[in-house]
Hints:
The chain is of the alpha+beta class. It is built from five helices and three strands, in the order H-E-H-H-E-E-H-H. Helix 1 packs across helix 4 (about 65-75).
Amino acid sequence: MMTDLDPLILDLLEWLEREPRSYADVMDAWRTSCPRLTVWEDAMDRGLVARIARPGKGAVIAVTDAGRGFLRERRASGPAPVPAFIAAAARR
């Protein structure tokens, strides 16, 4: 099932796939107070990313096996449409 946030979640996962990021970096880049843009929260709730303790590095955020499956599925199905609420905001 695809949701309006899937394209943004895909962006988050692709960014994290390059290298696990510190929790602080992820929060700086992806946390939002907008109730319609719950990218970080949805990715965590779906089990697509996980917070992992790394000795000497603190907490890092990494893509899980489920997240890698999500990436494979979305890449195979081609580009995702832009969510309607994002397209509307871009037209303003």
